[in-house]
Structure formats: structure tokens, C-alpha cells
TrEMBL record, chains A, B:
It comes from Flavobacterium noncentrifugens. Keywords: Metal-binding. Coiled coil: none annotated. This is Uncharacterized damage-inducible protein DinB (Forms a four-helix bundle). It comes from the Bacteria. The keyword Metal-binding applies. The lineage of its organism: Bacteria, Pseudomonadati, Bacteroidota, Flavobacteriia, Flavobacteriales.
Length: 160, 160
């Protein structure tokens, strides 16, 4: 089956809206953490919410830019050196704008081209993008548990 | 923009493969729980892994069948009355086959039709299907935390 000409299930515009909807929810989850717990609270030896967010930030906007530029720059989880929750939220908003801008550069054909993201993940672009989204949902689900363990009610999952 | 004729980013076959890949990982996570903890362990007043799995099972295959049949049957989280982890896994595998079979009945046009799932969620079919997948990733992320809190190493996130 020719993936470029068969009828459309998800198009580029819809996928961006879907991702940014999830990113909007993740922002609310980050913001729900008290400052100290964002950097310190953990369960079962897992990473803190700040560390999980650093990974999401290092993956989303920079990865999309790498895809657009076809640059195999290595992954760097701590590329931003953020030190307060406010700095994380500011970087989050910058990333939102960067993702929107770089998304415009992607043609439908680009999604199906194989690209070696970070010099490590040699897959069709669509698979790498879905990985960013799924990875964010996964780690945000973990942050929901951290919030619940702290006695804080997280936002509704369907609130985007 | 006409969503049915613009170039394809995600097609039906790919989306099914993506969902079943996630379902395969969720099955491994369920299987990683000791029997008692699957039904009893919880953090911060959240639902147990068994209750989260019951929701995923009640949503996936039955919802897809409702979509195919255009039946607005209400959602029932405990529709299966499963009592052991083995029963959950058996129902999981039955659901895998049912999803594959019902997926064949969906045309590309169907994904864009609005349908009132469970008599409650009146959205385009593609949005409801993405909700099942995202909801599963979200709750499975929470089960990862439960496993870590129990000192059990979960499967790799990218293992599908």
C-alpha cells in the first residue's frame, strides 16, 4: 500500500494539534508541583519530575529541529541547565513556539523519510515523532503518581 | 484542507500496528506484577493495577466494536469480572484478536465520522481511538511507578 496516496487517517496539522494538546497538559502537571518536590521527590529510585521534564524538553523541540535540519547532533538530556520551575516553564513555552515553527518545515513526504535522529535512532521521521509524544505521555503519567503521592490532585487527563 | 486527500502522515494499517505495539508492552507490564500486588498495591489513593487494566480492557476492544457497530452502549469498567491475573491476560489476548478483526471493518472515511461513543464522547472516531491509546500509555506509565516502588524492574518502554 502506498502510504502517501491512500486515504488520510492522520494528517500533519492534526498531529501537531494533538502533540501541542498533550504538551499543554504536561505544562499544567509541571506547574502543579511545589518547587522543592519538583526537584527532589521520587518513588522507587526513579528520576525526579524535573529530570523527567528535562528529558522531554531535550527530546521535543531540539529533536524536531534536528529532523528539519537533518542534523545528527547527539542527544543531551541536560542541554538547558534549568534551575527553577519557572525556568522550566519558560523553556517549555519557548519550545512550544519552536515546535510550531519547525513543524511548518515538514512536508508530508518528510514524515516517511528515514533519518538517524541523534545519530542513534534510524527510523522514519513519523516513528520518531510519535516516540516523543508517547514518551511524554508515559513520563507525565508517572508525574501524576508523584502528585497523588504528595496529596496533590493532578489536572484532568482529558484537559488539553 | 481536505483531510481525506492531502498526503498521508499516518494510515490505518500503521495506526493499528502502533496500538498493538503499545498493547504488547502493556501486557508485559501486567505480567510483571506479582498476583497480590496486581490487585492490592496502590500509591496515593490511586486505583490498583488491576483496576487500571480493567479500564483499559473495557475501553479498547469493546469501544472499537461499538464504533464499528455504531452502537452507543454505555461504558462499563467492570464488564468482564476478572478475578486472577491469568484471567486478565487471557482477556487481553482475546481483545488483541478482536481489535484486529474489527479494525478491518473501519474505512479511512470512518475515522473522520463523528460518533457518540458510549453515548458520551461525541467526537470523530480518530479522536476516540487516539484517546484509547494515550489513556493506555498514561496508565501504564503509572503501573511502571508501582513496579518500581515494589522493587521490580519494568520492561523497556521501547520494547513493543
Amino acid at each position: 500500500m502506498d502510504t502517501l496516496t491512500t486515504p488520510q487517517v492522520i494528517n500533519s496539522e492534526y498531529l501537531l494539534k494533538h502533540w501541542q494538546g498533550h504538551r499543554n497538559l504536561t505544562r499544567k502537571v509541571i506547574d502543579a508541583f511545589p518547587e522543592n518536590h519538583f526537584f527532589e521527590f521520587t518513588i522507587g529510585g526513579m528520576r525526579t519530575a524535573a529530570q523527567l521534564t528535562a528529558e522531554i524538553l531535550a527530546m521535543g523541540a531540539p529533536a524536531l529541529k534536528s529532523i528539519v535540519d537533518r542534523s545528527e547532533e547527539p542527544f543531551s538530556e541536560n542541554r538547558f541547565n534549568l534551575e527553577t520551575k519557572a525556568e522550566y516553564l519558560t523553556k517549555w513555552d519557548e519550545s512550544t513556539a519552536a515546535i510550531n515553527a519547525n513543524w511548518e518545515e515538514l512536508s508530508a513526504q518528510d514524515f516517511h523519510e528515514t533519518f538517524n535522529l541523534f545519530g542513534l535512532y534510524n527510523f522514519p521521521v513519523i516513528q520518531n515523532i510519535q516516540y516523543f509524544i508517547d514518551n511524554e505521555i508515559h513520563h507525565r503519567g508517572q508525574m501524576f503518581v508523584y502528585l497523588r503521592a504528595l496529596g496533590i490532585t493532578p489536572p484532568f487527563f482529558w484537559e488539553r
